[in-house]
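Example record for the data management plan.
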Amino acid sequence: METLPEFALEDEAKRFRKWQQTAETSVSDSEQGLSSHRWPPFGSSGLNGGVTRGETETEWSPLALWIAEQIKKGIQPVPLPPLPELLKSIYQEDRIDYRFGHIAQLFSGPPESHPPTTGDLRWQDAFKLLNRLTEAYPSVPWTMSQRQVEETAQFHEQTAREAIATTAKVRSQKSPETKIPLISGTFHQALKEYSKYRKAHFTKAGEFDGSGHYMLGMIENFQKRQPNLPLAILDFTHCQEIYDFWRNRPLNLRTNKPLSKKHCSSHIGELKRFFIWLHTSDKFAWRRPEDFDLIETKVQKLPSDRRSIHDIEIKTFSVDHLKLLYKHALPAQRLKIVWCLNCAHGAAEIGRVEWEDLFLNQPHPWTNEGLKITSDNNDSWCGLLRPKTDVVGWWWLWPETVQLIQWWKSDLQRRIKRDLKSSERIMLTDKGANLYRDSSRNAQSSFSNEWSRLRTRVAKAEGKDAIPKLPFGTLRDQFSNWLGSDQNRAVIASVALAHGIPHKGDKLLYKHYSNRPWAHLFEAQKEYRQALQPMFDEVTTPAT
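Corresponding structural encoding:
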């Protein structure tokens, strides 16, 4: 007891002692011995729950013994303890465990003012006792009487409503309805949890898919550009306001111009997914308000959205432009240029091709399954599933493509000082890492940076206007644009770009894709190869 603070209620303890002696005149000698025993109040630190160690044995306070009996009987949660066990455990001679001083005060007055049981305590006193018992016995699940629970909940609910109303007032927001359900958490807190959910959604086998960065970026925009409302007031009107922010095309913070319709539509799509998650999540009690499906989500169309015929036209390189790019490119850059022209691939496709996707110097694998094309050991092929959609694609490889692939394999093995595995990607760095970084926010940065260096080299040698400033992805559009808009040729372009409905079967099973014009595609590739002959004539030894 020497360690108790100075504010231990000594005077209250004396009054309580006097009352206790009067009230227990009929108690037996043994009980009197128990009441006068020097029970250390929960130990000096309050951490041992009233279990103290004497010189030869462990001693338990009456309250600790009562709790043990309740647990033995399987009573959970444990109700507030009876007054005799409680009072005998917090009192010792003229001092009281300071944490339970409010209980001593209750029983220091006239006997007629004392509550007969802990169940008769006012909710304020019962709630305080609950907190003190939880501190002393943190492993015990305590509870109050139903009356005390209801009165405590009603008080704090009213306090919460007043806090919500005050929050809305200071933020100049619409006052919430008086009967609006109380829900913990805020809009931004929910967004943070949703971001974790979306990140897990884009993580497979421990690796994050870089395409998820765009989704996570939109969630960040919601937090940066929209107010942090309590979920308790997130009713139909407030939900509509959240959607309206993006429907009305807010300004781009960098250009000070309205965001594009596509950009805002993407944000609205992510908002829809967020509210579905929030409605079904067990982390928050928010539920969609009535008529939620009537929320307007259509993005406004602005006069500035009108496009000219020049904007609709796909911009590509001419053969003369390609000649200059091919001429000044290094061998590794030539491989990427030729590959993208040959197979209508961009960085995402060429960056994911594996060595096992190549079938060099052999007939097409579907020849024996009914594919009607002329094919022999002089032909080479690439067959893979398009990223994201899993639509199969097959391409006949030009001789120049095969030559550069063989050079690349030999040179790469020399640089990384080991043999390449069939399951590895073709495009690797000098350290053996993937050149296309799926988990990165900008997965194709290595391709775009190398492309920028090549354009700079061309501009220095040929003049700054020698080639148009088009991105690396332009090479993917060259073949399909060359095919033209004729309906039959458009179908071939679609097959070249691996558009269509995916099939769950193996990419080598011809029967799943037998209705596609493969032979016409391969012939078109050969024709396009002839159209690019001036480019190939510019460099007779592409691997040097």
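Summary line stored alongside the record: The first strand starts at residue 51 and ends at 53.
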